[in-house]
Amino acid sequence: MPFAEVEDHVELFYEERGTGTPVIFIHGVWMSSKFFHKQLSAPSKSYRTITLDLRGHGQSSMVHHGHTIAQYARDVHAFIQKLDLKNVVLAGWSMGAFVIWDYLQQFGEDHVKGTVIVDELASDFKWPDFPIGAFDLPALTQFMRDIQSNRRAVLEGFVPLMFKEELSEDDFSWMMDEVTKMPESIASAVLFDQSIVDYRGFLSKIKKPTLLCFGREEKLIPVAAGEHLRENISDSRLEIFEQSCHCPFLEESEKFNKVVEQFIQSLND
């Protein structure tokens, strides 16, 4: 199995398929690269699909430090350098979008060809001037306490909310296995950091083309979040997946893969 060593001797697990423009898929909080298995199993002829597990997630090093969005972004930068990747497209789902925006804040756009943002807000926090946020302080506090005291029950309720249709027993089983791999201490630490970061003020500075992929079903993230991003990222377009909720790359994988491929081709024109 391939691993790339980044900061502090942390090893990131990754897989890749295909050739061409490298596209790095970055998963959400508590999740893993396994959620992108439909992108790996149907490799594009136009781009090189790369999936990786962030530190503490999936099969990567289960270290107890560095669980901030800023550090995850530094890990992605080190990963890109390690593999000597050029002109990459960064595709971030949920928390993965925050990792991309923090990467751009820290390292700029010089080696980035474009970005794909999947079903995320500019901030998950419900700030006084941002009512579409997912959490206010009492809700976040309770969520963190529940992760510490009764994580499995919480996630058994949360995971189905990511999908429009009911999950099969097999899919629910492997997803629960993935989201409970890390210790609760890591799970609550990264939940806090990813819930309070705020990239609203940074969006206007993004100049590279951006594809926004949002599910029509609003169990977790409203379509208004995608519209807000489209209004504030200058070179962006919004694609709505009518039969999806939070995971269009799984729920409508064929359409998702086609839309991403068309986006990559437009960057090469």
From TrEMBL:
The keyword Hydrolase applies. GO terms for molecular function: hydrolase activity. GO terms for cellular component: membrane. Residues 22-252 form the AB hydrolase-1 domain. The keyword Transport does not apply. Coiled coil: none annotated. It comes from the Bacteria. Transmembrane segments: none annotated. InterPro entries: AB_hydrolase_1, AB_hydrolase_fold, AB_hydrolase_sf. This is Alpha/beta hydrolase. It comes from Fictibacillus marinisediminis.
